[in-house]
């Protein structure tokens, strides 16, 4: 007991130190006897903190060996600054894995056009955003049994934050497409498809209008496609893609696209299976992985009302657990159990349960899980 | 003229066309006429005889569906005289690509056009024909009403929304450069004037067609300056139209909610790219481009109504095409011109035919020919006399 509590106290000290002075966090953490994983947590705005609480409760109930390092980076709550951003980056360099909520971007800007969320993404070079669109077992929507993966390039494209007012009343916004990044995301998409045993990758573009920009993206995808003869490659124009998604989404498997179209299709596809509360997603760079929800909205109108659906965040946390320690499947099993059971449905799925009810149900499931 | 005097004149005319039975309130039809009347030029709205309309059949299935529409209009005895013109890009003096002068003249005179699908050649050296038409007539607003068709079932029911898309600038400005090899820059242009113009059109449309709210769709959290400008202009214009509710929503939120509950939306106004995507999304909700009408409003009272589907070269000439989209666009055109009686007749005939499910073209789930479908609608129209 003495040694055990000693080991538990140590990480706590390290954590409090890291919050007050970022310099200490940059040193490599001491080796632990119980091999806990350290994960950076950025709750974000809106219902982010509530969802993070849900994740922490579920992990605690499941005795999951993960320890969270929290950072409250927020632009709207005036808790954003270069130092905070650097703290988060420093923590990420150590831990390599993070779980985060949405850092809301206010529409008024003071000086810099890029939001903190964009800057975090760029600094960590989180170029690939993967959203898993799977129909929830037990919850039927207009399109059932969907199984799509949406891969979106998230560092360039329309979100370049390069805007200027050239003449009074005329604003120009630049969309940048580079061959290198297009090739990188295409390769990521094909590698992902190969690893997960997917059969088709569809590139989404608007090259008939943006001939040079999206034309370059399309060309890069086609070039990479030739290196993967086992995977079928197709392309489709964004407006046709949206139309097909609402009429016949089963024709798609893995979709790859530049930034803005990714935003649109992520949200569209999330809506097809039940909304922003049920779709998990993650962002990858060559070195880091950040787990979050698929459709990223702060959902500020739900703050404090205990109505947010934590399914998406819990599924994402379960995915994170699978990445950290592939044997620990219990959390994912339990979350899906809960949804299957269809007794605990939050407001967005047509029920009346609160976030707390759902979390308690998952925790109860975890406590009663069979021990092998 | 005072509002009441206009109203009684219009009511009398509607009675003449059988669209108004005294005592029965049909606010939409009255206000649609009011809408047409309020536009800058008043194109012979009260039809004292035959009105000329320029028809551009287009490519692929275009000629078939255009002749189908002409046939149906004949059967309905619509007082319209068609002037057929073709648009192919020709190089004018000075090297600029333009549409043939006969087409331009005809449109300028008649002010109303009906267009079939035009082929966009890849690498032909000239810009797409749709783009040329847009530039020639300054067609700044693309209006697409998406209403669920009874009889053509889709997973989404009770859809009744209108997407109004700014059609001249935004992401489709066509300004692209290769900065260095492997890096391309596309410029998205947003101007105050264009944003204000489209916002004003959207609110006027809402007011004239008795729509309750206008929602501006944007991504001002990311493109803070450009979409911010668009949003500011919408807000300013909203101040002058206090009878119409104004809301603003992010594009991703709209997409998320649209596929879950499309009944929440009414009139949507947005810049070019978002409009392109959303209008196609909404068309998908009601059954696809084969049944969606569309109209383009231009700056000098010019209006061109078109079918937005492709030229379908694989079924061209085989009498398999579905003329519904062009027909519904033509109905939209009749309403714009003030011929509500005829519009209602043709629309009812078309919807009844689809609802009956006996004579349907292949894309609607049947296996009749285009000519049979057309004949059925003509028959119904004549039976209604």
From TrEMBL, chain A:
Supply the InterPro entries for this chain. Answer: IsoCit/isopropylmalate_DH_CS, Isocitrate_DH_NAD, IsoPropMal-DH-like_dom
The primary location reported for this protein is mitochondrion
Gene Ontology BP terms = isocitrate metabolic process; tricarboxylic acid cycle
By sequence similarity, the record places it as follows: Belongs to the isocitrate and isopropylmalate dehydrogenases family.
Q: List cellular component terms (GO).
A: mitochondrion
SUPFAM superfamilies, per database record: Isocitrate/Isopropylmalate dehydrogenase-like
Look up and give the organism this protein is from. Answer: Astyanax mexicanus
Keywords assigned: Mitochondrion, Transit peptide, Tricarboxylic acid cycle
- Name assigned to this protein: Isocitrate dehydrogenase [NAD] subunit, mitochondrial
Q: How does it assemble?
A: Heterooligomer of subunits alpha (IDH3A), beta (IDH3B), and gamma (IDH3G) in the apparent ratio of 2:1:1. The heterodimer containing one IDH3A and one IDH3B subunit and the heterodimer containing one IDH3A and one IDH3G subunit assemble into a heterotetramer (which contains two subunits of IDH3A, one of IDH3B and one of IDH3G) and further into the heterooctamer.
NCBIfam families named in the record: mito_nad_idh (TIGR00175)
The yes or no answer to whether the keyword Mitochondrion is present is yes
SMART domains annotated for this entry?
Iso_dh
Q: Does the keyword Transit peptide apply?
A: yes
The subcellular location is: Mitochondrion
| A Pfam family assignment | Iso_dh
Gene behind the chain: idh3b
Q: What functional role does this protein have?
A: Plays a structural role to facilitate the assembly and ensure the full activity of the enzyme catalyzing the decarboxylation of isocitrate (ICT) into alpha-ketoglutarate. The heterodimer composed of the alpha (IDH3A) and beta (IDH3B) subunits and the heterodimer composed of the alpha (IDH3A) and gamma (IDH3G) subunits, have considerable basal activity but the full activity of the heterotetramer (containing two subunits of IDH3A, one of IDH3B and one of IDH3G) requires the assembly and cooperative function of both heterodimers.
Lineage of producing organism = Eukaryota, Metazoa, Chordata, Craniata, Vertebrata
From TrEMBL, chain B:
Q: Where would you say this protein principally sits, based on its record? A: mitochondrion
| PROSITE patterns given in the database record | IDH_IMDH
Task: Name its co-factor(s).
Answer: Mn(2+); Mg(2+)
Biological process terms in GO annotation: isocitrate metabolic process; tricarboxylic acid cycle
Location comes to: Mitochondrion
This protein's superkingdom?
Eukaryota
Give a short account of what the protein does. Catalytic subunit of the enzyme which catalyzes the decarboxylation of isocitrate (ICT) into alpha-ketoglutarate. The heterodimer composed of the alpha (IDH3A) and beta (IDH3B) subunits and the heterodimer composed of the alpha (IDH3A) and gamma (IDH3G) subunits, have considerable basal activity but the full activity of the heterotetramer (containing two subunits of IDH3A, one of IDH3B and one of IDH3G) requires the assembly and cooperative function of both heterodimers.
Q: What is this protein called?
A: Isocitrate dehydrogenase [NAD] subunit, mitochondrial
